[in-house]
Amino acid sequence: MGTNLGKHQNNLPSPRKIRRGCNKELYRTIKRLGVYVPEERLEEGEALYYKKVIGNLMWIVENRSNRKLLADWWDGEVCDELATLWEVDAANLSKAFRAAFGG
Q1: pLDDT tier at 9 (50, 70, 90 boundaries)?
Q2: How far is Cα 26 from Cα 79, in angstroms, rounded to an integer?
Q3: What is this structure's pTM?
Q4: Looking at the chain, which terminus has fewer C-beta neighbours within 10 angstroms, N or C?
Q5: Is residue 2 in some structural domain?
Q6: ∠ at Cα 4 (70, 11), nearest 5°?
Q7: How far apart are CA 6 and CA 52, in angstroms?
Q8: φ, ψ for residue 89, nearest 5 deg
Q9: How many domains, in total, are found in the chain?
């Protein structure tokens, strides 16, 4: 059974929920970017993003209400590697992610 948490405290999200969230964020980013990303590279990018989120999960959960801070984290930790993988400009990728994510 669950623990007794206050109404404003939540358990950590499940791995499935994290994976789906990463998938949606990257899907929305690609739509705003307006480029074609091959399925294989898209899956590699999702795996990369998922691993980064899992590795920083406690910090991300603590700051989940601060979209700008999370988008800044994404720029520093994920954007450059993803831009290289997808062969797109990192600045454009960052701008598209911020537009999609709301940060």
Answers
A1: low
A2: 11
A3: 0.85
A4: N
A5: no
A6: 25
A7: 28
A8: -70, 130
A9: 1
* Angle (CA) 73 99 24, round 5°: 75
**Is 95 within the bounds of a domain?**
yes
Task: Print the domain residue range for 53.
Answer: 15-101
Which residues, at least 6 apart from 63, have a Cβ–Cβ distance to it below 8 Å? 69, 70, 73
Q: Under a CB-based contact definition with an 8 Å cutoff, are residues 46 and 26 in contact?
A: yes
Residue 91 placed within a domain: yes
pLDDT score of 10 more than 70? no
DSSP tag of 12: P
Q: Which amino acid is at 80?
A: D
Gap between the Cα atoms of 46 and 10, Å rounded:
25
